[in-house]
Amino acid sequence: MDNVSVSKGVFAHKGNYKIGDKRVKLRSPDYFEEPWYLAYNETWTSIEKATEDIRSNMFQQILIDLESFVSKVKEKPIESLENEIQTAILLTGVNVPDHAIMFDRIISKLEPITKHVALVWNRDSNNVRTILEESVSQLMNVGNVNEDTHVRKCHCTMRALKEWYQEHCEPNDPLVIIITDFESSPAAVLHDFILILSSYSKTMKFILIFGVATTLHAIHRSLSYDVTSKLNVQVFHTQTQINILSDVLENTVFCTQIPFKLTGRAFQLLTDIFLFYDFSVESFLQSYKICMIQHFYANNVNSLCCQPQEIRSRLSTLTDEDFREIRKLPSIEMYIKQLQKEENKSGPLDNMRFEEILIYLLKQFHRYMHRFLIILKCLHNLMATLPNSPMGKQLREFYTKAVYLNDLRESHEYKECLQLLGFLSKSEFLAKLNSVLEIMDRSRDPVMKQLKTDLQCHVAIVEEASLEVAVTPADILATGEKLNRLQLKEKLLRMSQTQSRSPYKQAQLDVINYLDRKVFSVHLVNPNRMPANEIFCFSDGNLAKQHIRGSLRAAVHSGLNDPHVYLNCECCKLENDDAIPSTLPDLSIIYKLHLESRKLINMYDWLQAFLIIVDPESNTKDQRDVDPKLQARFTQAVAELEFLGFIKSSRRKTDHVKRLL
Question: Which 8-state DSSP code applies to residue 517?
Fold first, then answer.
């Protein structure tokens, strides 16, 4: 009995373990060490770094202005506010997903000034009770991680907020409430909400921040005078999405430090989606990332899409199979055939010679792309401000034409711009040429330096050229030639043109012809026509559209008609599209049977056909007693098909359903 204890029992101890907290060590996928993934990851990292700088600058001014606004309100005593609610109106433009990032940055920027910030989305502003509970809950529970002291929403009232404010806040601490989308919130709800806040403005200092997508007049249209008179409004403007997109393109697609390039239909698709659908820079970057994944995925050849100094190290990681794939690239194969034709050689090149040619082509493409972007900016600077802007006003419009058209110089817009350049005055023309020289001066490429030197000579001639036309009498018959009527007409036309041109006009035409024939025609060749473009450029618009703007109905049809497309299981493999094996999912069987029916489907016949496929051994045809399990499977599959929108119940016949598509 000495070892018997009367204190035996079970004592509960609250540990740190929670259900679902089990940590599982995930092994990195095998492709993390593949050359194509390393190249993709390096390129995307550089793009992310560039875009992060853009995001920082995107809302830089608005964040500084709001910080100053809230700081000034905090410094003022509550008595000096004259019972007015200090209100900031953010004219954000079209409401896009990017605004969520902007409001998160606003909250982070205001945290050093006040931690009491509530962010209210339009889904939480359907009625006065909801918007009050949501805003008060966020203000009272800010930084509160303890579940025991967490205030429930049903207890979040203005009276509770007043008691909490007097206990936990300094007298001058502002309570900031952000309404993200003013137009989407009901006007009556905002009307009552502002009046309620105004009634407590003597004891609590409120700051309202409204995100307005249209104009300031939306405030006055939605709210009555008795409400707006209680607001002390200050307006802030954000940068337009078009300018932000230009900054993004300048640091990604138009940047020579990033070797991957979007060209052709793919680039046009992404810009069209931005301009005509969502105006979202974040969506554009995600679509850009999808195009990059499609370009690099499982293709070690495209790991050569790197900086020139890394080409040799990347080549050392490729296998013989990869080199065979490189030889099959259309542009490289065509280049080698042309090279062998010039050297009067035949047969395949040895590996050493081919590797030297490949390194030369890759470096040559880098040099070409650098010159292409510089000259494109020169072209944009010359032609963007011409009357009616035939080629557009933005650099992306010039880039789209240069990478989409087979020959930019053959386009009607380009020819029209050249004609318009000839109508510019001397001062305007010289200003454009000097700006082109400044762009060329940014490049260290020797070819660009030579172009700059040649252009400077032309500019000097234009500066010295006179505007006066020298009129000299000409004797048509002095040469003694016998001319017919047509020859005489042509000679008179040539003489009239040469006689009416001033030295400036002639120098101007010489410069335009020089730029057209020696600069633009040489350096603005479509990148898809250059050797090794397949390694650097992605232009497959159909493939990009398939992943970015997929057809939901087509995807559902493919999944139901042929489940093997998504499941990749052998039991769902079809010998032909019309086959309906019993191993298919019930929903697929029901769907394929419904495709064989007319407008109205008899439920009994449908069930019998389903039973014949699912359980062919039991003779269930025209049998009234059906296995309850099979009938339940059939009923569930029909309900799922109705949920997907392919059928609906018919009012004409109770035992039939109607096909919708």
Answer: I
pLDDT on residue 618: 67
Nearest to 83 by CA among 233, 210, 228, 230: 230
Helices vs. strands in the chain: H and E counts, helices first: 29, 10
Which is nearest to 376 in space by CA: 247, 514, 528, 254? 254
pLDDT at 5: 44
Q: Please check whether residue 321 is in contact with residue 300, taking contact to mean a CB–CB distance below 8 angstroms.
A: no
Asked whether the CA dihedral 50, 56, 62, 68 is positive or negative, the reply is negative
Helix, strand or coil, per DSSP, at residue 392:
coil
Q: What one-character-per-residue DSSP string does 143-195 give?
A: T---SSSPPPGGG--HHHHHHHHHHHS-TT-EEEEEES-TTTS-HHHHHHHHH
What is the per-residue pLDDT across 372-430, written as a single tens digit (0 to 9) for each?
999 999 999 999 999 999 999 999 999 999 999 989 999 999 999 999 999 999 999 99
Residue 269: how many other CB atoms lie within 10 Å: 20
For 192, residues 6+ apart whose C-beta sits below 8 A from its C-beta are: 128
Distance CA 150, CA 141 (A): 6
Pairing relation of β-strands 85-91 and 537-538?
Answer: unpaired
pLDDT for the residue numbered 26 = 61
Q: Residues in the chain with pLDDT < 70? A: 1-28, 95-97, 143-149, 469-481, 495-500, 618-624, 661
What are the backbone dihedrals phi and psi of residue 90, each rounded to the nearest 5 degrees, phi first? -100, 110
Task: State the alpha helices, DSSP H only, in 524-563.
Answer: 533-536, 541-548, 552-561
Coil/strand/helix, residue 237:
strand
In DSSP terms, 86 is beta-bridged to 207, 232
Burial state string for 393-431 with b = 16 or more CB within 10 A and e = fewer than 16: ebbbbbbbbbbbeeebeebebbebbbeebeebebeebee
Distance separating alpha carbons of residues 508 and 426, to the nearest angstrom: 9
**Residue 378 to residue 383: CA distance in whole angstroms:** 9
Strand duo 600-602 + 656-659: pairing: antiparallel
Largest CA distance in the chain: 148
- Cα separation of the two ends of the chain: 84
